[in-house]
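Before the break, one more example. Copy the sequence into your notebook; we will annotate it together after we see the structure.
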Amino acid sequence: MQEMFNRLAKGSKPRAPLAPSTLERIRVTLRVALNAAIRDGLIEHNPARHLELPRPRKPRAVIWTEYEVERWNRTGKRPSVAVWTSAQTAQFLHSSREHRLYAAFHLVALRRFRRAETAGLRWCDIDLDNGVLMITHTIQRINGRLMHCPPKTRSSQRMVVLDRGTIRELRQHRARQQAETTQLGCVPSGYVFTNRRGQPLNPDYLYREFIKATADAGMPPIRLHDLRHGAASLALAAGNELKASRTNSGTPALS
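Here is what the structure looks like once it is written out:
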C-alpha cells in the first residue's frame, strides 16, 4: 500500500502526480473499506492506518508590489495567495473608515484576529477601561446553522491587550451600534459585530463585506485571512521607523 501511494504521489508518464488532497481522500476511502473488513472478521488490523502521505505544500504568498499590481490590472491574473504591503494595508483602513464593520477590519488587520474569532466576540469579553479582551469562543457556520465553537487551537483562547487606537475604534463602533439598534428597534444580542438585524454575524458575511470594501477602495484583491499579515508588516514598518528615530535622536519617538 505504501508503495502504491508513493507511485501515485510521484506520478508517471503520461499520468501526472496526484494532489495531496486526492491522496488523502483515497486513503480515507481505503480505511473505511478495511475497517468493514475488520468488522467482518476478514482481517485483524487496518494496514492503511500507518500510511505516510506527502504533506501538501502551502502556496507561497506573493506581495502586491507595483509590478504585480500592474500585471493584475493588465491581464486580470492574480496570485492564489497574496498579501498587501504595510502602505496598502494602511490605505485600505483609511478608505474603509466609514464602513459599519470597520472595527472588525481593524481587529483583523492590526490585531491578527481570525474571522470566526471576530464574529464570536461579545461585549462581555471586552474591558475597554482596562484595555483588554478575551477570546473565548468563535462562531462558525456548520450544516447551514451558526454554531458556537471553541477557538481553533488551545493557544487561540487568549487575552489580548488593546492599544489606544483599538480602544478608540471599539468605543466608536459601540456608539454607532447602539444608535443603529435604537433606530431599528432591535434587541441587543450582546455581540460586538452583528448583521443589520442585530443578530450574530456570519463569518462568511464578514468575508463578503471585506471583498466589497476592498473593491470599493480600489485595492488589489486578497483573502480576509491574509489581511492578518498586515499586522506583521505594519509592526515591521513601525519597528524600522523606531530604529531610525533612535539613530537620529538617541531616544525613541512614540506616536
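Residues 2-50 form one domain. The radius of gyration is 24 Å. Try to locate both features in your own notes.
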